[in-house]
Amino acid sequence: MTRVTLIPGDGIGPEIADYTVQVLEAAGADIQWDVQEAGQAVYEATGELIPDPVYQSIEANGLALKGPMTTPIGTGFRSANVALRKKYDLYANLRPVRSLGQVPALFDDLDLVLFRENTEDLYAGVEEKISDDVMHSIKIITRQASERIIRQAFDYAQDHHRRHVTVVTKANIMKLSNGLFLDTARQVAQDYPEIPLKEVLVDNMAMQLVINPKQFDVIVTENLYGDILSDLMAGLIGGLGLVPGANIGDNLAIFEAVHGSAPDIAGQGKANPTAMILSACLLLDHIGQTDCAQKIRQSLDRVLSQKEKLTADLGGPASGSEYCQALCQDLKNNK
Ligand code: NAI
């Protein structure tokens, strides 16, 4: 049995974490959960967003499934999510965007995978105040961090028989920083002669994704562009409730949905747990329980093909709990 740290987080986190645990149990996942509290409520009670036992648990297990955590905008503490990714050097952020069931969406049959560099760029947190009226945020791009994420994207493309890799930058304007990322992609691509490298500028990429996303396959990009484009891609298949993520480093991995804590719907029973369930599927893949992950994905496709089982974000009448029960029942029926 694999021991995994489970951090429910805040906002809709505890609801969707509870549903996810139920679904994994119904699918027969061989996981023992080590539940740890972190996030806004813990911060308000203790002054610490991520208390020490949470770090100790993640380090002991090497694996975590995490719900979203709220980050105040503009002021207050820095993002706990960004802090975890930096602390454990979780440099590869994998975000698969795949059409599910019969969910009403702009596109069906979409199957894209985005690799986002997860440790540097404008998210490195290097900011300086020049005066009350002038602030600087420094964009940091290094060859080493660029190379390891680009290699991950090519390795994935090779292992999963993907058609090509698209590198997204703004190298025409930020010639040094984005130029380095692009140059590194061109060099890495030479080691994978059977996988063509496409180059697209980020503004054009946003437009191309909206009008013809099927021209893409595996996408690799810098931190900020990856953050924005993955939300856009979520919108193509039905919304943020559906897109999972993995933050992978050399020694440790944390799995979490792309979406945040959704304070607008928290505690109302409306949250869609699909993204967190699919994040758990990425975890199952990672620890070699791929059959169990596939069983859950097939169940999601079946249940998401029934209009009456869809949650409110997908235009349906079901609560998160009713949807979860439908998934558990489907898994039991299709053992
Ligand atoms: P959000 O992703 O929480 O919500 C955006 C919209 O999508 C909202 O209308 C929300 O109701 C909806 N939505 C998101 N997830 C959903 C789900 N599972 N089911 C149904 N509807 C869903 O983004 P927002 O509002 O910008 O951020 C809220 C908080 O979350 C902020 O404090 C932000 O910093 C934090 N955040 C945390 C992340 C993490 O923990 N990894 C990632 C992104 C944001």
From TrEMBL:
Domain Isopropylmalate dehydrogenase-like: residue ranges:
3-327
Q: Report any one BP term from Gene Ontology.
A: tricarboxylic acid cycle
Q: Name one Pfam family in it.
A: Iso_dh
Write down the InterPro entries for this protein, in alphabetical order. Answer: IsoCit/isopropylmalate_DH_CS (IPR019818), IsoPropMal-DH-like_dom (IPR024084)
**Coiled-coil regions listed:** none
Q: Which GO terms describe its molecular function?
A: isocitrate dehydrogenase (NAD+) activity; magnesium ion binding; NAD binding
Q: Does the keyword Oxidoreductase apply?
A: yes
| E.C. numbers | 1.1.1.41
Which keywords fit this entry according to its UniProt record?
Oxidoreductase
Name the PANTHER family for this protein. DECARBOXYLATING DEHYDROGENASES-ISOCITRATE, ISOPROPYLMALATE, TARTRATE, ISOCITRATE DEHYDROGENASE [NAD] SUBUNIT ALPHA, MITOCHONDRIAL
**To which protein family does this belong?**
Belongs to the isocitrate and isopropylmalate dehydrogenases family.
What name does this protein carry?
Isocitrate dehydrogenase
